[in-house]
UniProtKB/TrEMBL annotation, chain B:
Organism: Bradyrhizobium nitroreducens
One GO BP annotation of this record: protein maturation
Matches recorded under InterPro entries: Hydrogenase_HupF/HypC
Domain of life, per lineage: Bacteria
Pfam family, any one: HupF_HypC
Protein task: Involved in the maturation of [NiFe] hydrogenases. Involved in the biosynthesis of the Fe(CN)(2)CO cofactor.
Protein name (Swiss-Prot/TrEMBL): Hydrogenase maturation factor HypC
Any one Gene Ontology molecular-function term assigned to this protein's record: carbon dioxide binding
Family stated for the protein in its record: Belongs to the HupF/HypC family.
Length: 363, 78
């Protein structure tokens, strides 16, 4: 039997001359986890998550564990919460770094070795429920620092060095649209969590397939985090700017893992009890805010489980990517199409995407 | 939400590339992020790159789970 999942997003850009008249997005399909796990013990889903999700599997585990504990009226001890945040930050750093190359730029031997080193070192930082011993943690951070240094990324300056391969990559970023629309800033925040998780449990897949906040579809992810720090007046950002924000965050995450004295940002992991047997959690992972919500019966079995991935916001049919594209002006031919592809890639979907161009009026 | 669909390495190519079989469909991918890969190994791929190597038993259990989910999804749609 073949697998029937559509693990790719289809994007069609409708052009009126050199201007993008409309953008259509066909989402990937989502696995019916509730259907399969309803009636099973809450803990039975936990070991399945890293097998099911190839990206951000730590974030999925932490989100589910936190939601389950909230449903059961339990709270993690501070040390345990700290180890979960460390694991999430380590994974976020790895995902952001890997995403600089995977599907984007040529991966030369030096870069591949550095990314592999970070992937291996990040795994040493500990699991979702156990921190690594101090010596191992320090060793892992040293390895990450060395690997980032080889790529020209400085954690002190949260930037990349001039003359590095990454600097060349940013400078050569082909993603410049001739004109990009000015987009009102709208970013997902911790303050939105309660409304989202309540809707998630109440409306299920109908909400998680196409989420909104009273009609608003905010952006989440690196650019949103960067915008919140800088209080940007517009949420537009060309691919080079988004790439720079990603590199800066990699440096910041490394510095946090090294010193870790202050909070990197609010709500890296947040959990919510929504009534008897109901709980939810949000985790700020590489691509943005990931939500899990679960309802359990009196014996701790799953009645309902829903999750909402960041890609559902950024690649919503009326969401941030569409707002950033609609009304934009393209250069002629391949150059213009490459610019659109670069912008789509800079929104960093958690699945591959296909991109097609059509002339409006020729549907 | 990238589903982790295991792929079996069927042929190693030059320049850190490989042919993998995903549920019977062949695809060429980069294996630059994985060390010590051999034909018969299972990997998890994302946008044309192998991200991690998993053991065959883990791959079998994951494929089994994905088939259950696929069947549940088709049942819901019909």
């Amino acid at each position: 039997m073949s697998l029937s999942f559509r693990n790719e997003i289809d994007i069609t850009v409708w052009l009126a001359g050199a201007t993008i008249a409309d953008v259509a997005i066909k989402p990937r399909s989502r696995p019916p986890l509730t259907r399969l796990f309803a009636g099973k013990p809450a803990a039975s889903l936990l070991p399945v998550l890293p097998r099911l999700f190839s990206l951000c599997s730590v974030a999925h585990q932490v989100a589910y564990l936190s939601a389950m504990e909230a449903a059961q009226g339990r709270e993690p001890a501070p040390a345990r919460l700290r180890s979960r945040i460390t694991a999430v930050i380590g994974e976020r750093l790895t995902e952001l770094l890997r995403g600089l190359f995977v599907g984007r730029a040529a991966l030369d031997g030096t870069s591949a070795a550095a990314v592999r080193a970070v992937m291996q070192a990040s795994a040493l930082l500990g699991g979702v429920d156990e921190a690594a011993p101090e010596a191992l943690h320090c060793e892992a951070i040293a390895q990450i620092r060395t690997a980032l240094g080889a790529l020209g990324i400085s954690s002190e300056a949260a930037a990349f060095e001039p003359g590095s391969a990454l600097a060349a990559s940013v400078a050569g970023c082909s993603g410049k649209l001739v004109a990009q629309p000015v987009v009102e800033p709208s970013f997902l925040t911790l303050a939105d969590d309660i409304e989202i998780v309540a809707r998630l449990l109440a409306d299920g897949a109908a909400y998680s397939d196409a989420p909104d906040l009273c009609g608003r579809i905010p952006e989440t992810g690196v650019w949103a985090r960067s915008a919140r720090r800088k209080e940007m007046s517009s949420s537009s950002g060309d691919p080079a700017a988004r790439l720079k924000a990603r590199i800066a965050e990699i440096g910041q995450l490394c510095a946090w893992l090294d010193h870790g004295a202050t909070d990197l940002e609010e709500g890296v992991v947040a959990s919510y009890r929504l009534g008897a047997g109901k709980g939810a959690a949000a985790v700020e992972c590489a691509r943005g805010r990931l939500y899990h919500a679960v309802a359990l019966d009196g014996e701790g079995r799953i009645v309902n489980f829903e999750f909402l991935a960041p890609t559902e916001w950024n690649f919503h049919a009326h969401g941030p990517l569409v707002r950033n594209l609609k009304g934009a002006t393209l250069a002629a031919g391949r150059q213009g199409q490459d610019a659109v592809r670069a912008l789509v890639g800079s929104f960093d979907p958690c699945v591959g995407f296909s991109l097609g161009f059509r002339e409006a009026g020729h549907a | 939400m990238c589903l982790a669909i295991p792929a079996e390495v069927t042929k190693l190519l030059p320049d850190e590339m490989a042919i993998v079989s995903i549920d019977g469909v062949s695809k060429e991918i980069s294996v630059a992020l994985i060390e010590d890969l051999a034909v018969g190994d299972y990997v998890i791929i994302h946008v044309g790159y192998a991200l991690t190597k998993i053991d065959p038993e883990e791959a079998r259990r994951t494929l089994e789970l994905l088939r259950e989910l696929s069947a549940a999804g088709e049942g819901a749609a019909s």
